[in-house]
Amino acid sequence: MWxxxxxxxxLLVAAIVVVAVFPLYYAIITSLKxxxxxxxxxxxxxxxxxxxxxxxxxEGMFARNLLNSLLISTAVVVISLLxxxxxxxxxxxxxxxxxxxxLFTILSVSMFPPLALLAxxxxxxxxxxLYNSPFALILSYMIFTLPFTVWVLTTFVRDLPVEIEExxxxxxxxxxxxxxxxxxxxxxxxLVTTGLLAFIGAWNEFLFALTFTSNNExxxxxxxxxxxxxxxxxxxxxxxxxxxxxxxxxPLIVLVLVFQNRIVPGLTAGGVKG
Length: 274
Description:
The chain has a single domain, classed as Orthogonal Bundle (MetI-like fold). The longest helix is centred in the first third of the chain and has 32 residues, at 62-93. The chain is mainly alpha-helical. It has helices spanning 2-31, 51-58, 62-93, 99-109, 114-127, 134-158, 162-170, 175-186, 188-204, 207-211, 221-226, 238-258, 260-268. The relative contact order is 0.14.
């Protein structure tokens, strides 16, 4: 009975892995094809042609779009953490009237669908003359990444030992010193988790990037991939699209694999309890 249960478990895990990995695997082998071979269903590559990758980087402005996504996503992560850490400390450690209501409001903001905010946000960005600039995307992405960052970090800081903070106060530490030198080193898992999820969200976002940019120089990679097209609707460059998709996806996979040991603790753990 134990062997059957164990075998069923591993079979289920294998099925989940296949379902999760197969789309990426098929995109990779498709990106290595050209011509009529693109329409042949092969589960093992018969030849390796890197022409699609060369075309993606040499034709158009995909390299510029890739750099735009990298800069915007990095800026979103940095700003979210710079604002989120002090806000989390204040919400977790300082008692003031309306704190619970403020936390609930922060959580509620992240529940709004992006489409519901699109029109109002567009008018706001146009009023500040930010249209077709990286700042428009950074501002719009912060609306959703900052509430999530503050909520996760607040939960993490709340579970940190109060005795450590009290000892620092006795030694004459100010709140900024407590945040920078006491709490920040202990918040590694939470910072990695929130930063990585904010980066992935900004990297993959499509709706705002399509709406708030109007030329290829300012577009990010999701929009650039969506706008890849041939001379007509019957000449869609599937090889180039697959190559671009693989280029965009691989960095995220690498980041998740590198920081996988910190992602789960960052969402579930709350520090050292004693």
